[in-house]
Amino acid sequence: MVKEKILVIGASGQIGVELTLALRKIFGNSSVVASDLREENDLLKGTGPYVSLDVMNKEMLHVQVIRQNITQIYMLAAILSATGEKNPNLAWHLNMQGLLNVLDIAKEEKLHKVYWPSSIAVFGPTSPRENCPQRTIIEPTTVYGISKYAGEFWCNYFHQRFGVDVRSLRYPGLISYKSSPGGGTTDYAVEIFMDAVEEKKYKCFLREDTYLPMMYMPDAIRATIELMEAPANKISVRTSYNISSMSFSPKEIAAEIKKQIPEFAITYQPDYRQAIADSWPRSIDDSVARQDWGWKEEYGIEKMTVDMIRNLQEMKGGN
Ligand code: NAD
Ligand code: AKB
């Protein structure tokens, strides 16, 4: 078996922390190098190697890849939808150039595999709202969505033209309790749990009837690793796979939380993120991922809510 050495870029972020820990379990602590622009996340400390790295500095990235004998990169660094609308130039620059730096180095150093996530944000108001298919009209209206759609085609291009084995998922909003989300429109679905456990109330920045596709982090991590471990001949989509597990509105998730915390109360004060949410589909058809490499979710809204609240309460209690 080929010995893999993995570099995770953006390892201190919402996905990066849990993905790094999961990869370390599979490949061994010393075989997974965590890296980020910001400091090492507390949950990663003592679990394996960490390097401070700016993905925009291609030379330094290249040096690290050679020095550490890297064979796979998971490229997670990005600016998400809500923060992206505040600084479109920066979002475009990081989301595009960061990916291109990784793809160029992957080509040059003949890396075995690259992972790069896309998002449901590639879809826009002209895409089907319900069960949005893998292949459909895609006209994103946020800079984040534009950068993700362009990124998908760069991945496809590097695969077709240079044989880089780059794989991708269009994640929905991800819900987790270990590390906080970083400036997205779906962040409300994490904040609502944190505030419910801490304060028993939440002021939501989206309208009560805003349905969005969501996924619990354990499913997202498993999907990522299953995609990366699938035989190459099972991967028919080299842009990015639709992937899905549940869709809900703020009103529905609040009702689910109330089953666990009866005193919980929610109020609504929609802001600029409402327009972003309104441009995305309410649900996603991920049948191609299910057919190609056997994707299947484990968590629906009920099971996820119970698990989130139990874990947050345990953390609050210091257990
Ligand atoms: P995040 O903002 O929590 O983490 C991103 C990390 O990248 C941060 O720790 C940040 O410090 C780091 N970073 C930023 N600029 C960097 C640079 N120049 N060099 C090195 N590191 C840098 O984001 P996340 O939620 O973990 O998302 C990771 C990826 O998954 C992104 O590509 C995002 O678009 C995608 N995604 C996330 C979600 C979600 O709901 N979390 C959904 C769809 C897609
Ligand atoms: C965001 O809201 O920007 C992200 C995403 C769905 O890509 N969570």
Biggest β-sheet: strands ordered side by side in the sheet:
3-2-1-4-5-7
Rough outline: globular
Q: Distance between termini? A: 39 Å
Portion in helices: 40-55%
What is the correct CATH architecture of the largest domain? 3-Layer(aba) Sandwich
Any idea how many domains?
2
CATH class of the largest domain: Alpha Beta
- The third-level CATH topology of the largest domain is Rossmann fold
Averaged pLDDT? 97
Q: What is Rg?
A: 19 Å
In this entry the ligands are: nicotinamide-adenine-dinucleotide, 2-amino-3-ketobutyric acid
Total helical elements:
11
Structural category? alpha/beta
Low-confidence stretches: none
Relevant CATH superfamily of the largest domain: NAD(P)-binding Rossmann-like Domain
